[in-house]
Amino acid sequence: MSERVAIIGGGKIGEALLAGLIAAGKPARDLAIVERSPQRSAELADVYKVLVTDIPTATEHAQIVVIAVKPDAVEGVLAELSKVEDNNDVERVTVTLVAGLPTSKYENALPAGSPVIRVMPNMPLVVNEAMSALAPGRYATDEQVESVSNLLSAVGKVMVVPESQMDAVTAISGSGPAYVFLLAESMIDAGVALGLTRAQAAEMAKQTIRGAGAMLTESGMTSVDLRAAVTSPGGTTAAAIAEMERGGLRATMYAATAAAAAKSAKLSRRSELEGSPGNDKDTADRGV
C-alpha cells in the first residue's frame, strides 16, 4: 500500500474510505483529501492528521485519485481534474465511487487515454464491511486494477466485474443493505405482535441477522445448505418458510431486483444523454 491516494470528497463515503485505509496501516503522509467546507476540513484534519487541501495540491504525485462526491458535483470535479497537469513521475488512475455514470464519461472529460475504474460500493463501507464491485475502463491496466482492489479491500470485499454488469451489481449489493434493513424491520414488528417488547425484538433480530451473516460468509456452506440445516422437517422453521413461499418471497425478490436494475440502467442512460449525473434522490443520498 505504498501508493499516494487523493480522495476528492470528505462526506460519509470519503471519510469511511479514509478511516479504513488508515486503520489498515496506510500512512497519513500518503493520503490527501479534498473538502470545500472549512469546518469539515478542520474536523478531518484534526481526527485523521492528513492533508486537507484543494484538487491540484491533493492530486500532485498521487497514483490513485478517488472521486467520492455527490453526483451533481462530478462535472465540476472533472473540469478541475482536466486542468491539472500530469506529473511525469506517476501513472495516475481515477477511481469513481459515484453511481450512475459510466467510465466513458470520465474518459471523455479527462486527458486522452486516462485510466478510469468505476466502483460500486455499498453502505457497509462505513463499518469496513463493504461489498465493492470494480469495473475497469478502456485504459486501466491489470496492475492498476490490482492496486485499486488492494486499496478497497481495506474497507471490505472486492469483486472485479465487467461494466455491463453494474446495473445488476446495483440491484444486489448496492441496494441490498436496504433489503436486509427492511427484513429486520419486519422481524421486529412481528416480534412485537407476538408479545415481545420492541427492545427485545430489535436485539433478537439484529443479532440473528449478524450471526446468520457470519455463518453465510465463514461456514463454507451455501445459503441453500444453511437454510436446510435450520429447517427441521415438520418443525417451526418449516412452517414459517412455507408461509414465506406462499406469500411469494422469491418472486418478490426477483421483481424487486429487476426493478432496481432497470432504474439503474435508466439513470445511466439519462446521465449519458444529458451529459450530467442523474439526480435520483436515492442515488444522490448514497453519494456512491
* Helical stretch tally: 13
Distance between the termini: 23 Å
**Helical residue percent?**
40-55%
Shape field: elongated
The largest pleated sheet is described as: 8 strands, mixed
**How much of the polypeptide forms β-strand, as a percent range?**
5-15%
Number of strands: 8
Secondary structural class: alpha/beta
What is the architecture of the largest domain at the second tier of CATH?
3-Layer(aba) Sandwich
CATH topology title of the largest domain: Rossmann fold
Regarding CATH, which class of the largest domain?
Alpha Beta
Kindly give the count of domains.
2
CATH superfamily caption of the largest domain: NAD(P)-binding Rossmann-like Domain
Read across the widest sheet, the strand sequence of neighbours is 3-2-1-4-5-6-7-8
Look at the structure and give the mean pLDDT.
91
Contiguous runs where pLDDT drops below 50 for at least 5 residues: 276-288
Please state the CA-atom Rg, rounded to the nearest Å.
21 Å
SSE succession: EHEHEHEHEHEEHEHHHHHHH
Structural topology:
Blueprint: E1 5-8, H1 12-23, E2 31-34, H2 38-48, E3 51-53, H3 55-59, E4 64-67, H4 74-83, E5 93-96, H5 103-109, E6 116-120, E7 130-136, H6 142-152, E8 156-160, H7 166-174, H8 176-193, H9 198-218, H10 223-230, H11 236-246, H12 249-274, H13 281-286
Parallel strand pairs: 1-2, 1-4, 2-3, 4-5, 5-6, 7-8
Antiparallel strand pairs: 6-7
